[in-house]
Amino acid sequence: MLVVGGMLVAACSLAPHAAPPGSVSPEERDEVVVLVDGEPVVRAELERGMNTARAGVAAANGGAIPPDRLRKEGLALAVQDKVLRLWAREEGLLADVSEAGFAAALAAENRRREQARASGRPLPGVPSYDEYTFAGLRAAELRKALADRLDLPRERVRAHYDELVKDLTGEPPTFAESEQRVRLSLADREVTRELVKRLQSAQVTQPSRKVH
């Protein structure tokens, strides 16, 4: 078991050694690394997770980046992202949880931005997304959409407010002043808790290898 951000991911050691980001062929990027509840995590997703984990691994190891540690951390992040996508699909928020679906969504968004720019009405933000930035944006959007679906009674929001302000020094903002922010904080916490549960129960397995 591997813990990343407080989340448990099983079977991470099943992943093969990964090459540095950008050094694998298109065919290798489609190679299945592990299955998460039957859904493939491919090499491209592992590469993206490794890229995201790289700075943290370096910071934790005095600037060094042990390949095995980077691979484990990267795979844990890739599995976490797949579990999030599976949850979003279950809720009807996402139709395709595959890497191909992600790549298609990225291409469509960049086309939309290019068309807007060509028409003289550029969209806010960057001219185009790379896969790493878009992956972070998509994950944040899915988390928000899942949070928006939560039924959080005002009593629970008030209890969360009391928890947040009990150790503050000085005069905290009133509940009325901060209710919306507190609601968002509680919703984010509940999404994280549910994601932890789903990660703990996810079946992460090695794909069967073809025998030639």
UniProtKB/TrEMBL annotation:
Q: Which organism is it from?
A: Nonomuraea endophytica
- Give the domain of life: Bacteria
Assigned keywords, A-Z: Signal
Extract the InterPro entries matched here. Answer: Trigger_fact/SurA_dom_sf (IPR027304)
Name of the protein this chain belongs to? Uncharacterized protein
Quick one: signal sequence residues?
Answer: 1-18
